[in-house]
Write the structure tokens for this entry.
Amino acid sequence: MNTEILKRAVAEHGAPLYLYDAERIITKYQNFVNAFDVKHLGIHYACKALSNSGVLKLFKELGSGLDCVSINEIKLGLAAGFEPNKILFTPNNVSVAEYEEAITLGVRLNVDNLTFLEYIGINHPNVPVCIRINPHIMAGGNHNISVGHIDSKFGISIHQMPMTRRLVKKLNINVEGIHVHTGSDILDSGVFVRTADIIYDIVQDFDTVKFIDFGSGFKVKYHPTDLDTDIVKFGKLFSKSFNDFCKKMGKDYTLRFEPGKYMTSEAGYFLTKVNLIKHTTSCVFVGVDSGFNHLIRPMFYDSYHHIENISNPDGDKNIYNVVGYICESDTFATDRILNEVRKDDILSFHNAGAYCFTMASNYNSRVRPAEVLVNKGEIHLIRKRETMDDLTRNLVDVDVTGWTK
Ligand SMILES: *Cc1c(COP(=O)(O)O)cnc(C)c1O
């Protein structure tokens, strides 16, 4: 992204600011689709990565479906114009009431436990379901985002397939899809191939299946020397195994994926302003006007986010610890080499398009930043910065006079 646009966005909308590059999202989507050579391909963007309605509309425009993990994500998707049947609801441990609301809204269900599978069979015999399988495979960039292993709370265990088959048969459940999502930030594409073999075995047991959904976990570069998923190579390899399976079964299944991070991570920039340079006995701190209330990934997952001083690109290189203003240790980066940082410089954090704004909070009673979407050099405000009113709107006044007597 052109740094002039980043600077202009801050001049127009202030800092801290989330900026998303629409063209980058479009290219990522199109490259992903083009990588596969199968008869029917379905992409369901996993909107928990970045759920701003402007971004959702862009995915709608691209022809994507949506993967939603909560009833409110479903409502955001519907408001952005997605057809209910293009939305797959993949929740975990939600109430029956939430499933019921999703059924009423007409979205497709992904069921990850036998209790609800039985409930659907008995109460909604005509509602088709997708079944989420836990294949017991360890994969993912860190433990929190590895969700397909044996101790994971997600999915129906492959060892529970006998029980699943009995329920489906007895209650005549229409299993329209088989789903698996083993984690995020998976480098080894072999994981998908191994998972696919397990899934193909399961699909053979359900003759109503129309689509096979392999979730996501595609990796992007965070550190400049990181490896990322080679989607072209992966697409070729995976399409072949998928086509072979279709041929073997004599049936054209739809191949589905649900990329989140892959689509939006690299399209996002988080722009912060430097409040203070503080020299201590051990290091030089750069204190920015943000913290883990806005970008928690470095503190929560220990993730690396590349940082650039866009205000002084030719400055001498120095070593800094970049920290926030939250009253708790909120270190964005330790011993990071940056072009000389001065008060009021703008630091740009890369890979801020996935799991950044959507994980932001109001901790320390700070407001959440504005978001802008850039298309062909034009900056569109897609969320206003919060204000004090947003922090207080749900407070209910209580009179505590006399309580301490
Ligand atoms: C989070 C999630 C995804 C997206 O994962 P990424 O690694 O961001 O691509 C896809 N499917 C399900 C069910 C998810 O929970």
Notes: The two ends are 61 Å apart (CA to CA). The mean pLDDT is 95. The chain is about 30% helix and 25% strand. Residues 46, 48-49, 67, 69, 90, 181, 184, 215-218, 258-262, 354 surround pyridoxal-5'-phosphate (CB under 6 Å).
